[in-house]
Amino acid sequence: MPWTRPSTVPFPSVWLRFQAKGLDSPDPVWYVVQDVPEDRFEDAVRFMSRFFPHDEQLNEVLGFVDDPQALEESVHLWRDMVRQRVSLVCFREGSSEIVGANMLGVSCKADQKREERFGSAILQTIYDTTKYVSKQANLYERYGVQEYLSAMGLSVDPKYRGRGIATELLRARIPLCRAVGIRLTSTCFTGAGSQIAAARAGYTEDYSVTYGELKAIDARFDFPGIENKPCKYMSYRIE
């Protein structure tokens, strides 16, 4: 049975407030990280469509931005994810402008054998790579859980970068998970920026492998130019 958010948890909820530099002044302003409101689902998807294809390291290496089918299929995935009502957005307090977003969904042990098939070869390669790394992390057995909060995309508007917003988006998953009864949040972090943000938010490594090692395991996992860089599965266990 598909996971559903408990009706006892108010939606949308604010999960985190923090201070960081504003846009027009070095003085700190307040930001909030909250659930994506239902009337902003499409705005969050558009935000990801605008920034994520250019941000993600694997997207850049494989030419995702030049593959309309990869973007179209990603949009369908993001729409499915926001409907689970666990995806997060960051706003400046008092503003409706989306500053950052993390597209989240609940992965269940009962569904782990399900394979996604895409028309885009680029998206299929990225999916198969992260699926392989996930299997090596062995999360269900490692942590003794039946489900965990996973992700497919973390982006911050370029004009708001350098303020720790990615770290706060990742940190906000913790009270969210605690409220909805999920004991683990885990993600395949494919680039240095997100790996650093995750470590700052308290996530620990479950599995790390370089892209060169991945290619040696399976020729499909070919990411030219980043062979020496690591791909990491990282988790935060909620106590």
UniProtKB/TrEMBL annotation:
InterPro entries assigned to the protein according to its UniProt record, in alphabetical order: Acyl_CoA_acyltransferase, GNAT_dom
Pfam families assigned: Acetyltransf_1 (PF00583)
Signal peptide location: none
N-acetyltransferase domain ranges (all copies): 31-224
Molecular-function GO terms, alphabetical: N-acetyltransferase activity
Name assigned to this protein: Retinol-binding protein
